[in-house]
Amino acid sequence: MGSFLVRRFTQGVLTVVLASILVFLVMRLIPGDPALLLVGTDASPEDVERVREQLGLNEPLIEQYVDWLTGALQADFGPSISKGTEVGALMKGALLPSAELAVAGYVFALAFGIPLGIVAGLKPGGPGDYAATGFTMFTLGIPNFVLGILLIWVLAVLLGWLPITGRVAINEDFFEALKFLVMPMIAVGAGTAAVLARFVRASIMETLNQDYVRTARAKGLRERTVVLRHAMRNALIPVITVAALQIGFLISGAVIVEVVFARPGFGSLIIAAVIGRDYQLIQGMLVVLVAVFVVVNSLADVAYGLADPRIRVS
Amino acid sequence: MATLQTPEPLFRRETIGARVLSWRQQSQWFDVSYRVARERRGQIAIVILGVLLICALFAPQIAPYEFAEQFRGAKLLSPSWTHPFGTDEISRDLFSRMIHGVRISLFVSAGAVAIGMPIGVAIGYAAGYFGRWADGISMRFIDTMLAFPGILTALVVLAVLGTGTREVAITLGITAIPIFARLARGQMLQEKERDYVMAARTLGAGPIRIIMRHVSINTLPPLMIQAALYMAFAVIAEASLSFLGLGAAPPTPTIGLILNGARGYLTLGAWWYIIAPIGALALMLIALNFLADAILEATSPYVRNK
User: Fold this and answer.
1) Nearest CA among A36, A56, A59 for reference residue A48
2) Which of A85, A156, B112, B187 would bridge with B173, disulfide CB 3.0–4.6 Å?
């Protein structure tokens, strides 16, 4: 297990470093002089030169990258050109709203997708299976941000049950915050829920065909024990990996859903950064996001290793 | 004298010269298309995509009005004979706008696949076939690109290219490269150990010939499935990006822009305004996913008759 952890950790660090180099280089391709953007077009050439010097734009690329990386490791991502503040501060402000939504959406996906898949897998062709198929078709045809608009239309406009857009911080008023969170949470989590439901269904159907399940039945165990103790535990192990891989897609989907519901967060920040061609801001946010994905995926691998001893050996 | 009835041979061994190949045997494209057309999901996909494709190709002829034409006193009208899908907040015909929207959607997504698939597949084949450092370098690069999930890669590229319909198509083409490269490499690794590749090599075929004539034919189905699925992703991505204002500029009727417009008039009860883009999106996405399913069913002996 030790060497497995070390290997996974170095792999993860390498991916983040390579990703940061890639983003750094691509951001240099943005046309226009960042210094000029910062001081404005009517500034004197001396002023522009001074800002260039300040930003370190006159140094060789490698030096610039190393400077930026050492800063980033201390949570200093440099100044944002379009917003006029520190990138680190902007990200810190966006963290809680985005984390709220991502966690809520993920919890929804797990709590809805896995039981749906189990019901469908235990009785293929039954009503649960039809519900799962119907739900999957629905999420295939309706992408997350469109689902958000649809939810606003039905739940907020037509029925008037929920507030249309906006956000209340979860640490201020928990129940009020939940009201604002219900629709974005469903919009963000539905696609993941469908993927999980389909995977769980297949996994359960496969497990129920295994020899040890037949053995369990043959020795006269109750069906409940067979399903819960023997089949389910093994069927759900591979779900860990799929569920973890979905986190990345869930967060990238949340970017647009946040905009639909006018919630502050990484989504609206990154869109503003792309429109404003704010390379410092994009750079900082993407590297942080990639780091989050890599950590999540590594944790999933470790969890998988813990749950299934065979993985650790190979 | 009783004639001896020869049993029907399992495989007809006619001489190649005298043998007339049926149209299905002439190319794997024909064969796969034929099988897809026999699957129910394939039929649904072909009908929907066929209709939408005709709309896309002949949008200027089919659309009853110009997509930017404004009609006096026709603000937010519900569907009628003159305006089958109703009108929007600045009195434009939604039916005409939707037809042009579908056109942009399909053109952008097909363009993205047309850009990304050949490049990605070429990289993947080369990496898989030659192995060693070519594989090591390209796969490191591709894994790094795949570390950004979903639409985030597109956002990075778009920040460099700037906004616009063509930029979106190019961006989605670039983000397709690692996906196709990954898949093609895996296929190549599997196929190059097969006997027929060894046989071709023994006969003196070079890598280009082996890849183009032999391996590519056998790795076609998974790549076709991926192409259909990536088109579906590109349709969503194009709609998302133009919804966010990163795609085409406002008078252009993209599905994302129409959705964004419709969203503001929900409280006024303009149900037709929101139904049209959602319906068009759903049709395209379901059809493309069905197409992918049908190709899988048609080409995989294991999944058949499930």
Assistant:
1) A36
2) B112
Record: contact B150-A19, CB cut-off 8 A: no
From first to last of its 314 residues, chain A has per-residue pLDDT tens of 677 778 878 888 888 888 888 888 887 777 766 666 666 667 777 777 777 777 777 777 787 888 878 877 777 777 777 777 777 778 877 788 888 888 889 999 999 988 898 888 888 888 888 888 888 888 888 888 899 888 888 887 778 777 777 777 777 777 777 778 888 899 998 988 998 998 998 888 888 888 888 888 898 888 888 888 888 888 888 888 788 878 888 888 888 898 888 888 888 888 888 887 777 888 888 888 888 888 888 887 777 777 776 665 54
Cβ atoms A196, A117 nearer than 8 A: yes
ipTM for this model? 0.82
Please name which of A272, A191, A262, A275 lies closest in space to residue B236, comparing C-alpha atoms. A191
CA of B148 vs chain A CAs: smallest distance (Å): 6
Are the C-beta atoms of B97 and B88 separated by less than 8 Å? yes
Contacts of B148 in chain A (CB under 8 A): 19, 252, 286, 289-290, 293
Distance CA B179, CA B124 (A): 9
Q: A189 and A112 in contact (C-beta within 8 Å)?
A: yes
Q: How far is CA B232 from the centre of its chain?
A: 6
A27 touches chain B (CB under 8 A): yes
Pairwise CA distance, residues A299 & B31, whole Å: 45
Please tell me the distance from the alpha carbon of residue B186 to that of residue B207, in angstroms, as a whole number.
17
Report d(CA A312, CA A248) in Å as an integer.
24
One-letter amino acid identity for A49? Answer: E
SS3 B175: helix
Half-sphere exposure of B102 (CA within 13 A, CB side): 30
What is B43-55 written as a DSSP string? HHHHHHHHHHHHH
Inter-chain CB pairs, A–B, below 8 Å: 112
* Cα–Cα distance measured from residue B62 to residue B54, given in angstroms and rounded to the nearest whole number: 9
Give the type of residue at A183: M
Q: Which of A15, A271, A279 sits opposite B147 (nearest CB)?
A: A15
Cα angle, residue B130 at apex, residues B206 and B148 outer, rounded to 5°: 135
Residues 6 or more apart in contact with residue A200 via CB below 8 angstroms: A113, A114, A116, A117, A118, A120, A121, A235, A236, A239
- Chain B nearest-CA distance from A246, in A, is 9
Q: What is the pTM of this model?
A: 0.84
**Which of B145, B153, B156 to mutate to test binding with chain A, by most A CBs within 10 Å of its CB?**
B156
Contact A255, A271 (CB under 8 A): yes
**Contact criterion met (CB below 8 Å) for B75 and B91:** yes
B9 close to A (CB below 8 A): no
Tokens of B170: 């190019």
Quick check: B159 and A277 CB within 8 A? yes
Residue B256's alpha-carbon distances to A143, A146, B27, B271, B279, in angstroms, are 12, 9, 39, 17, 13
Q: Which residues of B touch A146 (CB under 8 A)?
A: 239, 259, 278, 281
Whether B156 and A290 lie within 8 Å, measured CB to CB: no
Q: Which residues of A touch B158 (CB under 8 A)?
A: 274
> What are the backbone angles phi and psi of residue B264, rounded to the nearest 5°?
-80, -15
Contact (CB<8Å) A143/B151: no
Q: Decide: A18 and A69 in contact? Cβ < 8 Å.
A: no
